[in-house]
Known about the structure:
- The chain is α+β, with helices and mostly antiparallel strands.
- Helix content is 23%, strand content 36%.
- The chain has nine helices and 21 strands.
- It has helices at 42-50, 96-101, 106-111, 113-121, 138-150, 168-185, 196-202, 220-225, 230-236, and strands at residues 4-13, 16-26, 31-35, 57-62, 65-69, 72-73, 81-84, 156-160, 188-193, 205-210, 213-218, 240-247, 250-253, 256-259, 267-273, 278-282, 293-302, 307-313, 320-325, 336-341, 346-349.
- It has a six-stranded mixed beta sheet, with helices on both faces. The chain has a five-stranded antiparallel beta sheet with strand order 2-1-4-5-6, with helices on one face.
- A hairpin with a 2-residue loop joins strand 5 and strand 6.
- Helix 5 (138-150) packs parallel to helix 6 (168-185).
- The two termini are 42 Å apart.
- The protein binds adenosine-5'-triphosphate.
Amino acid sequence: MNAVTAAGLAKKFGGVTALAGVDVDLPAGSTTALLGPSGCGKTTLLRIIAGFEKPDLGTVSVGSEMITGPGIWKPAERRSIGYVAQEGALFPHLDVRRNIEFALSRQERRSGSRLAELLDLVSLESSQLQRFPHELSGGQQQRVALARALARRPGLVLLDEPFAALDAGLRSGTRDLVAAALAVEKVTTLLVTHDQQEALSFADRVVVMRDGRVVQTGTPREVYSQPANRWSAAFLGDAVELRGTVRGDRISCALGLLPLSATCPDGEVTVVLRPEQLLIDRMGDSSSDEAPVIAQVVETRYFGHDSVVGLRLAADPELRLTVRTAADVNLGPGTRVTVRVRGAATVVGP
Ligand code: ATP
């Protein structure tokens, strides 16, 4: 278990800037998701940490040891880093046993105890040891790849979109299993993903990247509920954007006087709320004493686990709101509702 620090990393490929000065800390034993749109530099950062790529500038340290820096280069095979690629990259001509044993010392191979431990860790049956990669499901292949990556008890595991090729059902099950295995091994982990839900549910820290830079770092709750700017707000999920005027620790906007998630100088700003922060009641059903904010339903879309209701505010018909409600809420177009806000609004721009 080691802390990893990447500082000031810059990398260009010809005229393309992949990283433009990136600082990332991975606390020992933490699971960090590196989240960003395609082409923002996630894989480049991962490959530099792994030692597959050299940066133009910057350093990488594991614990107190610098492994990449001016005049310093520790080759990938000596970095004690486990790596799981998108498609697992198992050796197709080796069965499960030999794929995992490839990473073990001769002594460990002979004793068989680490192999048994690893199988148990990733929930594979010993009856599957003789199977070849093409005889396994995608999820099983990724579990074998993880067992192989953990075999030498690395200080750091890098996961490069390891669930991307799996279909939705297999994906969440495999993800839970991998998260549990990593927690047992207490290994520092960096997961690259462009899937917001995956980043928020898998990791205990999220680093949001855009155009070769880090936009925001925080816990999943922090980055989702307090996005650093409008782009980050929209990238991390559905956002309701409102203009308003800050006075002290509150903002006056079309949905009333709302608390702010962080202090901000007085004046005109843009804030965001998440659709699940908006609560609606049919007109007349609300027990609130305050002057109600009235809106009209434009449409209700059903998603199985919830419904999303589109609203038009009575006082400002140009302003459209999106509200996430319980699945059984089925309000037809034109229904009049009152809107309340739960929690704080976050300032995302002027
Ligand atoms: P994705 O999610 O699509 O994998 P990413 O966030 O991992 O994207 P990178 O693969 O790190 O992004 O690429 C960052 C930028 O650097 C992109 O513009 C990419 O085209 C460019 N790039 C990456 N590797 C190379 C290379 N070997 N040669 C030239 N350009 C490269």
